[in-house]
Amino acid sequence: MxxxxxxxxxxxxIEIRLFENAVFDLRVSGEYVGSTHLYNGQEAIAVGACAxxxxxxxxxxxYRGHGWAMARGxxxxxxxxxxxxxxxxxxxxxGGSAYFTAPDHGFFGENSIVGAGAPIAVGAALAxxxxxxxxxxxxxxxxxxxxxxxxxxxMNFAATFDLPVIFVCxxxxxxxxxxxxxxxxxxxxxxxxEALGIPAQKIDGNDVVAVEAAISGAVAEIxxxxxxxxxxxxxxxxxxxxxxxxxxxxxxxxxxxxxxxxPIARLRRELNSNxxxxxxxxxxxxxxxxxxxxxxSQAKMLPGLEQTAVRDVREHVYG
Amino acid sequence: MVEQAGVNYGGAINAALRRCLxxxxxxxxFGEDVGKPGGVFGVSKGLHAEFGNRVFxxxxxxxxxxxxxxxxxxxxxxxxxxxxxxxxxxxxxxQIVNQAANVRYVSNGKxxxxxxxxxxQGYLPGSCAQHAQNLEAFLLHVxxxxxxxxxxPQEAYDSMMSAHYCDDPVVVIENRGLYAGPKTEINxxxxxxxxxxxxxxxxxxxxxxxSWGPIISEVLAAGDQMPSRGIDAEIIEAVWLNPFDxxxxxxxxxxxxxxxxxxxxxxxxxxxxxxxxRVVEWDIQVSHMRRLGLPDVVVPASPVLMNxxxxxxxxxxxxxxxxxWCRS
Lengths: 319, 328
Ligand SMILES: Cc1ncc(C[n+]2csc(CCOP(=O)(O)OP(=O)(O)O)c2C)c(N)n1
Ligand SMILES: [Mg+2]
What we know:
The complex is a heterodimer. Chain A is α/β, with parallel strands linked by helices. Helix content of chain A is 45%, strand content 10%. The model of chain A has no long low-confidence stretch (mean pLDDT 97). In chain B, 36% of the residues lie in helices and 21% in strands. Chain B is built from 13 helices and 14 strands. A seven-stranded mixed sheet of chain B has the order 3-2-4-5-7-6-12, sandwiched between helices. In chain B, strand 6 (146-148), helix 8 and strand 7 form a beta-alpha-beta unit. The A-B interface holds A 32-35, 85, 89, 91, 93-99, 111-116, 144-145, 147-150, 175-178, 182-184, 248-249, 304-306, 309-310, 313-314, 317 and B 32-33, 36-37, 40, 57-64, 87-88, 90-91, 125-131, 295-298, 300-305, 307-309.
């Protein structure tokens, strides 16, 4: 992979990071309310994976999905607007932080029930068998979700019927407040899909290049009609499970220990040693920052939902 | 009477769990993040340290959690299983509806499953569609499961104790918005009472308002506003929905001859409809009755939208005014 593409990935990851930082501030200052799960630290997975997917492919994420929405190209403006109760929000206030949904971008939504996205993604893959598309479906979920029966059922269903789906387990080492290592006996999560007959691989989820390569390979294979694939992407989250999480369970110094391995620092270092100067890197950050700041100030200028709420609130329960 | 000074709603539940664990060897308590972290809402703080492996964290596997509760209860334990949100119990409804509820009946009474499922539900500003539903009616439809919805520290303590010593499965539905509420003195020494019962929260003569869950605070506020509109409301909080205090309800309605049921759950299929139907079936003469609930809409994440839907003190007063001044 050349420097240009790496720079693009870096920019995308920084935009997600800055978007999430802005969301954190908005939530903490009370500019909006509602439970919010940030993607800080896991950016390489969404950015690398989405770089390998085509426009017609489908992505299903969890509530920790702001980064997935952005990596699929959903404009930050519409995401800020959704959080800030503005018209023009991606779901006009109905979804909120945990249900960003943008089918136009091949993003079939976040989901707030642990593990629930996996069977639905399998259904999207099932549809591809009948609708003559070469669509690949990708579903992302956490390490904790591996313990939800729905995920095992979904994997076996996909394996049994050779469905074109990529399971991405983002292992950030915590299921909410509890370390995943305490909630499984077999620490290697790839062994479960393997036992179901699904090829499975552990990937360094902090390495955007490795993520893209892994997903590209899987997409190529799946498009040529092979069945499901599973990746355990090793990563970390750099903040609480949700905004406001006091993180008592986190050992002292853990977050600092991620400083050099988290995906953005890592890619910056790599680009640095490939000859990209510090000034150039700073320029990328400054541009990303401008993009996010602009999106936020534009969102704040949109009319509030108050103006349409009375008329519209009951719409979209049925078609 | 042993009083515990200054506990909030969450603290009261913690005190009840501690007492169950201390006085009843059969008690085990488990759920996601309830052990070492002490619960996502801090309700089980200190219990793992005090009771060791009788209080433990589980994988995110609600079916296994509730099923394990059913099986352990069949063997004579008194499990308390925490399901973080009632919305999440939907992934394990088989274990509640087909399994726990049926153990006693299909075995002709030879077996029972005395487990307590502690959970919480409801809307708080910004709660999203899958974290805000009021689903008690699903449970009330199923014979074999008891259900309560306490809202004060004392109610929370008492209903947890009654649930624990009940010989059938009980679902205790709490509310996360109440856990960190005001502290009050509660009585923690009494013998656990039988399950069931309601609380008369306001005496009045013009209209009976029955409600449950945290929306009761809107109902009480409405009751306080009504005298200025010439209405004296009687307010009953149904802490227990199964068994429901039908006698208390009938007594009140026979006095006021008007009935308003307020719940946060959706109107259609809500338990309010069941209450109204019984009043009709029992031929209790009333001049007016109705129910207020969420108007069959998915809960929107935006509080701006939700404010259009959720019953409020204002809409409750308006319903009472209509019942009394427009219909009589
Ligand atoms: C069925 C269900 N059970 C419990 C929860 C509460 N919950 C939300 S996120 C979470 C932890 C999930 O951990 P993991 O799958 O590792 O994802 P992460 O949050 O780390 O991205 C839990 C227990 C839920 N939303 N749905
Ligand atoms: Mg995790």
